[in-house]
């Protein structure tokens, strides 16, 4: 049966074994990932035969004494992870129970957690974009849009090169802070730095950047390589890099390196976007839209209505 645990009660080894063995395994569910993005996370766990069989991480917060669930930055999907396929009925049953103590819920579940209607739950479908890597690079590239193939050629003609330089991370962070100054707060950059360090420690980080022959940074990207997925966690371009095909060049190189790598079921996840221009850019590589789901519950609204009445 399901049991509720605080973070300090969780056996992290058994937790990570479950995530790794899950049929819907995602790096976002690993204990070491959650420890960075939400140190106070809690969980519901189904234990059987001395192993965690199913787990549900809960990324919790508290404001003015009111408990809530939220989706941390750099964490696209959570929800129930299970060693065996799990039904929509069970997913929604445990979610309904697990979210009861929280006055406000903004939480996304993974692509294998289909939603069902239940009181107060408001579901929204979100897109991520995935590309199967079970095919040779030449087959993948043939599916690119013409503009993407031209962008790769443009970057090559300009003499741009892709490098894994030690200082690439700092170059990326500089331009990322410049680009997201109005969106992210200093604590979010602290989380990103800590997450990058943890990804490196776990052997999951793949960071590359594009430079001119003169050594000027043009674009960079961080991919998370975990089990059957290669996730495009974030990327950034300098103003010059936006105009010379650098990001297309960089993504093409990543697909070339991982395509047909002999791991059945491996896929590249662009992590999706609700911005039409970015979504169109991802689809230009031949990626297909895959839905995942956002759960919103606002019990405070009911209290406000009562007080207002």
TrEMBL record:
GO terms for molecular function: transferase activity. Residues 142-270 form the BioF2-like acetyltransferase domain. Keywords: Transferase. InterPro entries: Acyl_CoA_acyltransferase, BioF2-like_GNAT_dom. It holds the Pfam family Acetyltransf_6. It comes from the Bacteria. This is Acetyltransferase (GNAT) domain-containing protein.
């Amino acid at each position: 049966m399901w049991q509720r645990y605080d973070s300090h009660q969780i056996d992290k080894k058994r937790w990570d074994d479950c995530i790794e063995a899950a049929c819907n395994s995602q790096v976002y569910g690993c204990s070491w990932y959650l420890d960075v993005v939400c140190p106070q996370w809690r969980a519901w766990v189904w234990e059987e035969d001395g192993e965690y069989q199913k787990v549900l991480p809960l990324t919790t917060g508290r404001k003015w004494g009111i408990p809530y669930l939220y989706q941390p930055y750099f964490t696209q999907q959570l929800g129930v992870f299970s060693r065996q396929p799990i039904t929509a009925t069970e997913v929604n049953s445990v979610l309904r129970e697990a979210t009861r103590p929280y006055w406000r819920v903004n939480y996304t579940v993974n692509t294998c957690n289909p939603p069902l209607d239940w009181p107060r739950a408001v579901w929204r479908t979100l897109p991520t974009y995935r590309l199967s890597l079970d095919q040779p690079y030449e087959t993948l590239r043939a599916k690119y849009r013409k503009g993407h193939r031209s962008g790769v050629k443009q970057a090559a003609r300009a003499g741009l090169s892709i490098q894994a330089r030690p200082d690439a991370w700092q170059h990326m962070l500089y331009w990322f802070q410049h680009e997201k100054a109005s969106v992210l707060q200093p604590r979010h950059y602290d989380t990103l730095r800590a997450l990058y360090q943890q990804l490196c420690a776990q052997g999951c980080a793949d960071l590359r950047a594009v430079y001119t022959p003169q050594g000027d940074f043009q674009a960079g990207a961080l991919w998370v390589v975990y089990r059957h997925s290669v996730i495009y966690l974030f990327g950034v371009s300098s103003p010059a890099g936006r105009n010379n095909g650098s990001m297309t060049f960089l993504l093409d190189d990543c697909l070339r390196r991982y395509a047909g790598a002999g791991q059945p079921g491996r896929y590249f996840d662009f992590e999706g976007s609700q911005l039409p221009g970015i979504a169109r850019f991802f689809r230009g590589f031949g990626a297909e839209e895959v839905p995942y789901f956002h759960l919103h519950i606002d019990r405070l609204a009911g209290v406000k209505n009562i007080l207002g009445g």
